[in-house]
Amino acid sequence: MPERLSFSSQTLPPEDAFAAYVLLYDGGLHITRGAGEFRAEVRAWRLESLLLFDRRLSGVVHSRNARAGNDGFDHVVLSLVVSGRVVGGPESGFEEAVASDIYVTDTARPSRTEFDEAHVLTASVPRGIIEAARGTTAGLHGLVLNAPRNLILADFLQSLARNGDAMQTGTQPGLSRAFIHILASAEDKDVRASNEARQREYIRRDSVERMILENLADPSLSVASLSRRTGMSRSVLYRLFEDQGGVARLIQKRRLEGVRRALDNGEYRRLSDLARAYGFPDEFQLARVFSEAYEISPQAYSDGVAAAGGDPRDSRRRSGWMGEIA
Length: 326
Fold this sequence. Notes:
Elements: E1 3-8, H1 14-24, E2 30-33, E3 39-47, E4 50-58, E5 60-63, E6 75-89, E7 94-98, E8 102-106, E9 112-126, H2 127-134, E10 144-145, H3 151-163, H4 175-184, H5 189-194, H6 196-214, H7 223-230, H8 234-240, H9 247-264, H10 271-277, H11 283-294, H12 298-308, H13 310-324
Antiparallel strand pairs: 1-3, 2-5, 3-4, 4-9, 5-9, 6-7, 6-8, 6-9, 8-10
């Protein structure tokens, strides 16, 4: 089953609901009241490298003016308006999106959106997927895709939302590749043809990433072992992951993300067991690199999760998700 979170303002006292919603987005968005009564229903799923949010919002404003470019979030967001209205502005690059529109936001750019009785499906997508589909992320911020150009993409987002709770882990690996081809279908034929090489390169990176995720517990996982298992030379592997700081750095990053998710879910009580499950030589090495990466020890992080409980834990999970696709 995919990792997921949910939030409903209807389950909270009216005087507490808005503050709880603000906490859900702590560290990612600046949340303020909009016009009319505040209401919020949120369901979200982590589907491999895609994050999907099904939101019904009204009377609330999301903005990323001061935080854009400063909080480490660096991905692209595609939002399908199922019903209602989303009001943009100069920062967001569009004036208004209504039912059946898909508007695009670059998290590295300032944005402001106000929701008016809006049902919105939002996919947070790594830049690598966008680049594989269309070659670049330039010029996307504020773009609004209309029917019929966006119909296949809109259907795909709605299918993911309908089936998110039931989706099995084994069915997820192909989603990012499917997303690439579906997103590319919104481009003209010449653009699609020019990006075939990028798509092939993304698939090669994706296959290596998948092998890393499947073998995190193996302490011998390295550039050399990946080269043997994939048949790719070390030089090819270095080139494929040069932008991510190299293969060794990527392996450690994925191990740490796995540890963080395990702590979020309360899966391990002993640090030594956690170290063994994610390929660290011992708990001392794990504690050192975790503290360097997240500026908090794994024990303190685990204590914070246990103390926070329900919605704050979802805030921590959501922030972790966003960091993983940056």
